[in-house]
Structures are given as structure tokens and as C-alpha cells.
Automatic annotation (TrEMBL):
Gene3D superfamilies: Vaccinia Virus protein VP39
Biological processes, Gene Ontology terms: methylation
GO cellular component, one term: endosome
Family the entry assigns: Belongs to the methyltransferase superfamily.
The encoding gene: LOC108812800
EC id: 2.1.1.-
Molecular function in Gene Ontology: methyltransferase activity
Record-linked InterPro entries: Put_SAM_MeTrfase, SAM-dependent_MTases_sf
Lineage: Eukaryota, Viridiplantae, Streptophyta, Embryophyta, Tracheophyta
UniProt entry keywords in alphabetical sequence: Glycoprotein, Golgi apparatus, Membrane, Methyltransferase, Signal-anchor, Transferase, Transmembrane, Transmembrane helix
Main localisation: membrane
Protein name: Methyltransferase
Length: 586
């Protein structure tokens, strides 16, 4: 058998050494491949992979596409209406305009710093955009220092730093004991709120549009903080009902009182019973601040009146208002909300499936509380980390058709076993080498639960064509995730994930869309020297392996942990390091 070593990354921040991880050559695995995959970052070297037969080689895209986001392309966005932020929503390129090339890294690209250093420093070469350092200079968002950006932890509403701001919130919201675990940050900027919640064991899903604040979501992901490109516009958020323990807006410029309170109603949909909504900045405390904000006090007064009116209709209880911060709490059930049944302004949503949200129009309607035998609508959650492995209410109540408690627990056991086998293949899996991880077909979140660590996070993606809607279960476990259709590009920048896991994804999408396109999208969002784990039946994996042999990835097919007779196999791959205008991959 031929043995090849892969070169690694030109990283000024890695260890600068080369660690080749020998992968066991199991019986039945493909021998005409790379048996030694290097998962560590290190200085550049050379490798020559000889293919046994000709395959389609994908060419690099032009250098101008280094930060290409196919469904949030700036030039394309400007052709859509500006009202209600329609032009900032997802508008994917049609089939005949897809690039079908490899998106290059910019010159000088390096491996991001490891967490927690990455929270405060991002290499300039990875996202070379200085606009925010000027525009947000007095707000302490971001500073340019030599060859790095520094993030002091400031923000428009927390110039004294995110920690002190969160301390103020934590005086009202129980963040320390695991009651609050999942959070949504709307209009997140560079996601400092989410970054500083990490030490309190709270996981925030942050989103912001791709707009004039160039690269804010890209900065968040370079820092190692969960974030996606997104906006509150006319389409429902890609999250399930009752997902988040708290939601947050810090001067996020969302018109909460407009459109009959539609945006607040959407926050209410994704907020768990008993969850909290935080609003800081205008119009809170307008009587004191209207001059500093340079806005008419009558306008601010009306804005706050509308917000208070919608919050009352939603049956939220105001818990706190001090300075420029206000906090509301959603009731745990509708016992205290009976009076709104007779309120003509209370328009309740008619849909049977409140989680059917993909490209669905947002409505100004209230999502009803679910029926429950518990005092908490939808069922009570344990504190984290207990909730990670407890049976989630959506499972115990039987609300997911055909899924029993036994089947759920068996799924958990299987994923613990699979992840243990993955760690034997790649011993760096949970060392912090991979910070931003994506599971493209997450199911109940078993992969993420088995990997759970303060060193990493997993974006649990539940495909919109998946048979059972399991993302609600993922959130009930204290994990985070999103709905997505893999026939389209994901709402992120290139090179934002360190490791991608795909369990039976290609079987799921067989005859639905082109496998080439899915793999090219994986390549776009994967960092140079990032790793891929694809689990599927052997016939599917052989086809996938042939495609990726033209993609500057090095790969190895390995047997299922139960032996070569199992039809399910695992394809492991590492993306080679190369940058724009380089003649070949390293």
C-alpha cells in the first residue's frame, strides 16, 4: 500500500509542528487512498496524490469570491425591495448561475487562534475588513492592532464590557444554575454578548444580516462564537417553537412595535414558556435619553407604548427596567392569560405545525401554548447539564410520531459509540483543535451530545426534508441548531467551520439535488485543513469519494466500528491548505 502524508497549513499561530495520525486500515476499506491523514495544523510541505482514474477536477473560483455567500450576495440583494428588509433575506442564485468552483481562502490565511484566545483576537488576514474599527471605534467593538483584530468585549449598549452588562442581566435572569442555557441574539453585531455568555455555560445563537457592517457575522465565527447570517424581515426564523430560554436585542434596530407587533410575536414563538426577552437601548428610558439619541421624545414614547402593548397581549410579565435595559418574562402557561381569549386584538395562529417555518411568511399572530399535563406548557426542562441526557418533553409526551423513549435512548447509545470510534480515528476531535463544528443531518443531536465540551460547539442542522422534525428535541437538550435545505447554500461565510459531520445526508438527498453541489458547499464553509466525517452506506460513499478526489481533499474510507460486514461505512477527509492565486494545493 502506498502511504502519503498531507501537508498542512501555513499557520503563524499553530504549533508549527507536524503530527501525522496513522489511521487503522480496516479490512474491506478502500486501499487506493491516503492511509495517513494529518489533522493538525502545521507549516506548508508538499504532497502528491496519484488518482487511479480520471475524475472531474473542480477549479478554484476567481479571487473576488473569497467571501462569497451564494444566498446573501450583496449585488443580488440590491435588486430586491428594501421594505421590511426583504433585500437582506435569503435570495439564492438560480441553478444555472451556481459557480461550481472551489471558493479560495485569501492570501495569508491562517488557522484561527484557539479558544479562549480567539474570543479576543482574530487574524487580520482571515477577514481583512477595517470598516468596523472606524465606524464602531467609540463603542469598543473591535480594534485593529498590527496583524490582528482585537475584540475588547464592548458593544453599543455595553461600553464597560459585556461581562458587566451580563452581570446586570444575571441579577434578574437565572444564568448561573443551568436554568437558562439557550439564547437568541437578534442583530448581534460581532457577537460579544454570545462570546461572554460562554463562561456562564449559556449557548447563544446569534444572527445579523450581511449589510453595511461588513463581516460582522464572519468576525463572530472567526472568534469561535455560534452565528449565522440572518434578519427579521418577512420570513419566519429558521428555529422551532419553544427553542430559546432567552432572547436579546441590544440596540438591534428592529422595529418591535411595527407591523402589529409581528416581530415580537415571532420572538414569542421561539421563546420557551418561562423564557426571558431583553431589550436594551431605544426606546427604553426615553425620557432621560431622547436628547442623546437625537430623536423626538414623542416618537420614542409611541415606540415604547407599542412594545408594552404587544408584550401585554403576549401575556409577558415585565420583570425589570433600569437605565436602558428592560426585561420581560413569558408566562409558563396560559392560566394567567385567559382574558386575552376575548381580546379582539389577540389573533391566534391557525397552523397545525408551528415548526413548519422554512420560507414561510411571518404572520402577526400569537402562537398558542401547547396542551400539557405539566404546570409548564410543553413540559418542564431539567437544568443543564442534566437536560442533555434526560428524556426531552417532546419525546416523553409522544408528540413526535413513531418515536418512543426506548428508540430515543437507543439513538443516544449509538451516538456515544460512534463518537468513541471517531476519536480513535482522529484523537484531536475534542482537544479544541476543532472549535466550530457542524452536523449536517443532526437528528436528535446525539452526535453533539456525545461531543459536548466547553472547548467546542455544534451547529445541529435539521434538513427541511428530514422525515421527523427533531430540532425541537435538540433545543430541549440544551443544544443549538437550525433548519436548512442542503439543495441551497448555508447562511454563513466561507471557511467558518473546522469540522463537518454528515450522517446519511447523501442518502437523504439522493435524487433531490446534485451531490456535487452539496460537496462544493461543504468545501466553501470548511476551513483549510478542516476535517469531514461522512457516514453512509458504502455505495453512496464510493460515489462521494470519487467526487471529492477532484476537490483538493485527502480522504480515507474506513469500516463501521462493528466490522467490515456492516454496509454502513465512514469516509474521513481533510481539506488541503491553499489560497487564492496559488497554483496548487498543499
Amino acid at each position: 500500500m502506498r502511504v502519503y502524508y498531507i501537508s498542512g497549513q501555513r499557520s503563524g499561530f499553530g504549533k508549527g509542528d507536524s503530527i501525522a495520525l496513522q489511521m487503522t486500515n480496516s479490512g474491506g476499506a478502500d486501499c487506493n487512498i491516503v492511509p495517513n491523514l494529518n489533522f493538525e495544523t502545521h507549516h506548508a510541505g508538499e504532497s502528491s496524490i496519484v488518482e487511479s482514474s480520471k475524475v472531474k477536477a473542480f477549479e478554484p473560483c476567481d479571487a473576488r469570491y473569497t467571501d462569497y455567500t451564494p444566498c446573501q450576495d450583496q449585488r443580488r440583494a440590491m435588486t430586491f425591495p428594501r421594505d421590511s428588509m426583504i433585500y437582506r433575506e435569503r435570495h439564492c442564485v438560480p441553478e444555472n448561475e451556481k459557480l461550481r468552483c472551489l471558493v479560495p481562502a485569501p492570501k495569508g490565511y491562517v488557522t484561527p487562534f484557539s479558544w479562549p484566545k480567539s474570543r479576543d483576537y482574530v487574524p487580520y488576514a482571515n477577514a481583512p475588513y477595517k470598516a468596523l474599527t472606524v465606524e464602531k471605534a467609540i463603542q469598543n467593538w473591535i480594534q485593529y492592532e498590527g496583524d490582528v483584530f482585537r475584540f475588547p468585549g464592548g458593544g453599543t449598549q455595553f461600553p464597560q464590557g459585556a461581562d458587566k452588562y451580563i452581570d446586570q442581566l444575571a441579577s434578574v435572569i437565572p444564568m448561573e444554575n443551568g436554568t437558562v442555557r439557550t439564547a437568541l441574539d437578534t442583530g448581534c453585531g460581532v457577537a460579544s454578548w454570545g462570546a461572554y455568555l460562554w463562561s456562564r455555560n449559556v449557548r447563544a445563537m446569534s444572527f445579523a444580516p450581511r449589510d453595511s457592517h461588513e463581516a460582522q457575522v464572519q468576525f463572530a465565527l472567526e472568534r469561535g462564537v455560534p452565528a449565522v447570517i440572518g434578519v427579521l424581515g418577512t420570513i419566519k426564523l429558521p428555529y422551532p417553537t419553544r427553542a430559546f430560554d432567552m432572547a436579546h436585542c441590544s440596540r438591534c434596530l428592529i422595529p418591535w412595535g411595527a407591523n402589529d407587533g409581528m416581530y415580537l410575536m415571532e420572538v414569542d414563538r421561539v421563546l420557551r414558556p418561562g423564557g426571558y426577552w431583553i431589550l436594551s437601548g431605544p426606546p427604553i428610558n426615553w425620557k432621560i435619553n431622547y436628547k442623546a439619541w437625537q430623536r423626538p421624545k414623542e416618537e420614542l414614547q409611541e415606540e415604547q407604548r407599542r412594545i408594552e402593548e404587544v408584550a401585554k397581549l403576549l401575556c409577558w410579565e415585565k420583570k425589570y427596567e433600569h437605565g436602558e435595559i428592560a426585561i420581560w418574562q413569558k408566562r409558563v402557561n396560559d392560566e394567567a392569560c385567559r382574558s386575552r381569549q376575548d381580546d379582539p386584538r389577540a389573533n391566534f395562529c391557525k397552523t397545525d405545525d408551528t415548526d413548519d417555518v422554512w420560507y414561510k411568511k411571518m404572520e402577526a399572530c400569537i402562537t398558542p401554548y401547547p396542551e400539557t399535563s405539566s404546570s409548564v406548557a410543553g413540559g418542564e426542562l431539567q437544568v443543564f447539564p442534566d437536560r442533555l441526557n434526560a428524556v426531552p418533553p417532546r419525546i416523553s409526551s409522544g408528540s413526535i410520531s413513531g418515536v418512543t423513549v426506548d428508540a430515543y435512548e437507543d439513538d443516544n447509545r449509538q451516538w456515544k459509540k460512534h463518537v468513541k470510534a471517531y476519536k480513535r480515528i482522529n484523537s484531536l476531535l475534542d482537544t479544541g483543535r476543532y472549535r466550530n463544528i457542524m452536523d449536517m443531518n443532526a437528528g436528535f443531536g446525539g452526535f453533539a451530545a456525545a461531543l459536548e465540551s466547553t472547548k467546542l460547539w455544534v451547529m445541529n442542522v435539521v434538513p427541511t426534508i428530514a422525515e421527523k422534525n427533531r430540532l425541537g428535541v435538540v433545543y430541549e437538550r440544551g443544544l443549538i441548531g437550525i433548519y436548512h435545505d442542503w439543495c441551497e447554500a448555508f447562511s454563513t461565510y466561507p471557511r467558518t467551520y473546522d469540522l463537518i459531520h454528515a450522517n446519511h445526508l447523501f442518502s437523504l438527498y439522493k435524487n433531490k439535488c446534485n451531490a456535487d453541489d452539496i460537496l462544493l458547499e461543504m468545501d466553501r464553509i470548511l476551513r483549510p485543513e478542516g476535517a469531514v466525517i461522512i457516514r453512509d452506506d458504502v455505495d453512496t460513499l464510493i460515489k462521494v469519494k470519487r467526487i471529492i478526489s477532484g476537490m483538493r481533499w485527502d480522504s480515507k474510507l474506513v469500516d463501521h466500528e462493528d466490522g467490515p460486514l456492516v454496509n454502513e461505512k465512514v469516509l474521513i477527509a481533510v481539506k488541503q491548505y491553499w489560497v487564492t492565486n496559488s497554483t496548487s494545493a498543499h
